Amino acid sequence: MTNIFGLLVVKNESHRYLDAMLKHVSWYLDDIIIVDDQSVDDTVDIASRYAKVQIRPDDVPSFLENESVFREFAWKQLEEKFAPSQNDWILSIDADEFIIADHPRDDLLDLTKTSDIGVNIPIPELWTLDPPMIRVDGFWNKNMSPRFFRYMPGGTFSGKKMGCPPYPTYVKSGMISNHLEILHVGYADQDDLEEKYSRYSSITEGHSSSHIKSIILNPKLHVYNRPIPNIYRNKND
Q: Is residue 228 situated within a structural domain?
């Protein structure tokens, strides 16, 4: 039997898409571990409705201080909570990302049969929600990542303090999913876009200066034609 476990790291997400995202993914994943970076809002309360939650202890660096160390801590929590086997697969996803697929559970299980370790998932960037428009210029048109991968024990991460990939180093770019996508909605709200630009601009490691600048340049957009789930921000926003 193959289990599919979700892995998320979060901090202060209660005012954004966390509830919508978890409501969307929880029905086709076997279980979800969410590692919280000591949020001071209602993130943990929302997350606990759908997933197992572990709060970062004080002796582990914050995600904003050292992504790699924080992700290794999250990985260990996944291993402790679920005791996965090498038949199981992990979906590493963020709180502002939604799976786009005709049959998400079946499509994920089909991918486990066609790859030994990992699958590259296209990640279109939603820039406007009404109407749904994705960005198609430069980097933004080619974004993909092996976010769906087979569990192997003792995973380690890249060591990067900023820009650490959200999957262990044993995961390599493999086949590309032709049917399933991860829709990232983190730039669709103007406040989110400005916050990301400000944060990335203050940190030199992990993102090129040209990529950071491109966030606020006039984007080239195309209509996103695939059906999308119910994407909403939390009502207390």
A: no
Task: For 164-209, give the DSSP string.
Answer: --SS-TT----EEPSS-EEEE-TTSSHHHHHHHHHHHHT--SSS-H
CA-CA distance, 21 to 228, in Å (whole number)? 12
Q: Does a structural domain hold residue 229?
A: no
* 100 contacts 126 by C-beta, under 8 angstroms: no
Residue 189 tokens, joined: 């709200």
- Bridge partners, residue 176, by sequence: 120
First to last CA, the chain: 41
Number of domains in the chain: 1
pLDDT digits 0-9 by tens, 108-131:
999 999 888 999 999 999 999 999
Domain that holds residue 120: 4-223
pLDDT over 70 at 204, yes or no: no
CATH code at position 186? 3.90.550
Displacement of CA 96 from its chain's centroid (Å): 7
- The neighbour count for residue 30, using CB atoms within 10 Å, is 16
pLDDT in tens, 1-18: 899 999 999 999 999 999
- Between CA 139 and CA 25 the distance in angstroms is 27
Assigned domain for 69 exists = yes
237 is a domain residue: no
